[in-house]
Amino acid sequence: MSGGGSGADAGQVESFIARWRMSEGAERAAYALFLRELCELIGVEPPQPPTSDSDAVTYRFEYPVRFRDAAGGSSTGRIDLYRKGAFVLEAKQSRWKGQAKEVLPAQGALPFAEPAGPRGRRGADRAWDVLMLNARRQAEDYAKALPASHGWPPFLIICDVGHCFEFYADFTGQGKNYVQFPDRLSYRVYLDDLRDEAVRKRLAAIWDAPLSLDPARHAARVTRAIAERLAAVSKALERQHDPEEVALFLMRCLFTMFAEDVGLIRKDAFKTLLRDCRDDPASFLPLVSELWQAMDKGEYSTSVRERMKRFNGKLYEDAKVYPLGREEIGELLAAAEHDWKEVEPAIFGTLLEQALDVQERARLGAHYTPRAYVERLVVETVIGPLRADWRAVLGAAQQLRDTGEAKRALALVEGFHAGLCRTRVLDPACGTGNFLHVAQELMKKLEGEVLEAAGELGSAERLGGFADHAVGPHQFLGMETNRRAVAIADLVLWIGHLQWHFRTRGYAPREPILEKLDHIHKRDAVLAWDGWPIPQWQDGGEALPNPRRPDWPEAEFIVGNPPFIGGKDLRARLGDVYAQALWADATEAQKEAIRRPAEALDALRKQVLDDHPELTLTKLYNVREAILAGRVLTPAEASIRDRGLVLILNEHHAAIDAAVASAYGWPADLGEQDILARLVALNRKRAAEEARGEIHWLRPDYQRPRFARDGRGGEQIEAGGLVALAPALAAKETFPAEPVERVAAVLFVLATASGALDAGEIASRFKQGRRVERAVRDILVSLARVGEIATGDGGRSFARRLTATG
Q1: Full-model pTM
Q2: How far apart are the C-alpha atoms of 408 and 410, rounded to whole Å?
Q3: CA 215 to CA 210: how far, in whole Å?
């Protein structure tokens, strides 16, 4: 059954809205009937009857999942509505005591009361809804608990029966960053919104074809073929002009196309100009020059006959325009005919890669990293820690709100937002800025949730352009040696930022549209010398005077995928002098001892894989592990050993291990236990240093405020590598004074506990003991109310959320 919402007439929609608006929405018993009728309204199949076999029916109410508790036991939870490969739906929890999914009332508060006013309508009296927060957290836990074979559902749906739905999506298949879908403006759907056929069709797609809503599939990309054609224009111009200036010229052209499609320039104005210039190529240079000058200054343009918005920034300042022939102008027009409003900025990386010749691409290690991989890395390294901080703030804000301190709760949320807007992300080998673009997009999505929470607590947002405090391009820093890539990365960040602005605000930003920023640096991240990037000529040969580690911009997070240049290729691609400067601390004999078996290993693996395409490195090394373990090989493994020359491969590895051990001054036959003992000894040494206040912070500005104890921040000592956390001090910690730090401290105690704890047991872990028991109790109740922790005995003891067993 599929109608995408088109089958419902106006009368059916009005009847549904009227019927459920007048219902008693607090009754969870009504949710199944409500959702069945919704399925009929949007034209999708209703849920199926359950059976005793949960794998037999994977679209049903009350779908069972297993959870594991801290003591090793398990329990069964039930998803309100589940559809495999589509969504987990959790209904807003019952207010009534004794229900299976009861939510605790605030400490000393009366039972929950239904908000005043008619249900199902959007109004200005929106308020922080702890029950919806709790339901979302519950839905996230249920998604984690699903069998691994089911994969992560792309959607979480939170339902307030008879009132609204909230939609959150994660299309990466990782389940680690469910965000408002499609954006902050539209993620909440009220009953009244169902009158819009487009909304009903979107709901039907979530039910029947959720992956069709993935923005990556919807983005109107310029195809690789178009990128190749634009790269051909670039190469033709670079034969006579500076490559960096050519790159900037093309970026101006493409940004003008984008500006036209988002409404910053009158519709079809630039395309019309290109059509006229194609017929009269000599007019291209003067007309486009005049247009870009007007865009830079915000003046009237005679080329397109309208006053231009003031773009400013560096893009159109002293903009150079090159004369083009009819064919090249035609290529630009073909690109402009695409819809650039939702262009995937990955196109710019593809364009650069196409423009580089083979030797230059190899020298730079310039290959494009797919969006899916980029997002996984950014979520793990940047968004995960930020979300952990945000959850602590939410818990503290709820605790203040429960005690009647709404203004202080709002101040905490606004303070987190201000900190988010100061958080800097650095990619030291940024290329065309894809990692930075994805980091900006995901941080903007998190910002949307923060602003929504602030609005529900009474904050009023500024109108007209980017707010005084907003996540934006200035926070995303890059280092890159390729001149063209530097220009592209800056543009990628601005396009991504403007795309998000139009999605969430719907009107043009304040002028100037762009800002002059110095955040993408043309710089080698590994090596600098006097006169970089030009080597000097000394004593009849090339030299790098005063080689040193370059200065890096300060940042809270570092992320990226540095260019891969393998062992023996490093010297060939970057030059002997560069390689010598990198390895200045190693003797020539040590380098040669490592280089010789490493190059032999590299050559052997390439030869084997070339001679036997059916073999893979994974197969070779699985067999090597079996040999090292002394296991008898199967006939198939023995065949891989012989064809893959695994015994010779192992000899090369042994030679490399011996050479590296010698370089470090370690015995060649050092066993794993001895290596572990040395690491433990090093850890003890570090622990003693930390006890004296000598902390080896990897990121001092970020770590010291969060983890320094009792004001002992220590001096920064450059860390030579990752060091294990020092053992916990025997002395009890002081219970913090600030709300967010208090919540974080309580969560830490629960995270390290083997089972549920009550307020007194947690308070006893701190110096103040029973004096802070009441404060701990209030925090526990508030954390449980927003779904951050769980209680199995009506609020007497608490534990971190149960973990999945599936």
Answers
A1: 0.74
A2: 5
A3: 11
